[in-house]
Amino acid sequence: MISSQKKISKTFFESHDGRKHKDIFLAEQFAEKIKDHLNGNLCVTAGVHIDGITEKQIDALFVMVDELAQAVLNWQNEKIKQARTPQYTTHLKRDREGHLI
Q1: How many CB atoms lie within 10 A of CB 80?
Q2: 33 and 66 in contact (C-beta within 8 Å)?
Q3: Cβ(34)–Cβ(69) under 8 Å?
Q4: Which candidate, 69, 64, 34, places its Cα nearest to that of 50?
Q5: pLDDT tens digit string along 84-100?
Q6: Mean pLDDT rounded to a whole number for the chain
């Protein structure tokens, strides 16, 4: 996770035999590619399992992550053109029990 203040935190998940999953390296690469183009926080999760994965397949995963990151940035750039200023509902009031009044 990368906060809007660029503070990075990582969580590793253990596999059934106690080893840490290596998906974090894919998530980190993805986050690094897009973090400077975003406002606010970023949370990336990744999960990959391929029985008997080869070194060539692992290398291909990193290429695919780069392509995915670029696709996300392209999508974001297109959506920014259509974005409107958000309208927040700060005018709503609640009583002491949390019910809208």
Answers
A1: 10
A2: yes
A3: yes
A4: 64
A5: 777 777 777 888 888 88
A6: 85
Do the beta carbons of residue 36 and residue 69 sit within 8 Å? Answer: no
Cβ-Cβ contacts under 8 Å for 41 (sequence gap 6 or more): 1, 2, 3, 4
Host H or E run for residue 68: helix 55-82
Helix, strand or coil for residue 1?
Answer: coil
The phi and psi torsions of 65 (rounded to 5 degrees) equal: -65, -45
d(CA 83, CA 75): 12
Contact, 27 vs 20, CB < 8 A? Answer: no
For the stretch 21-61, pLDDT in tens is: 788 899 999 999 998 888 778 889 888 888 999 999 999 99
Q: How far is CA 55 from CA 4, 11, 41, 62, in A?
A: 35, 24, 33, 11
What does the radius of gyration of the chain's CA atoms come to, in whole angstroms? Answer: 19
Token pair, residue 45, equals 């999760």
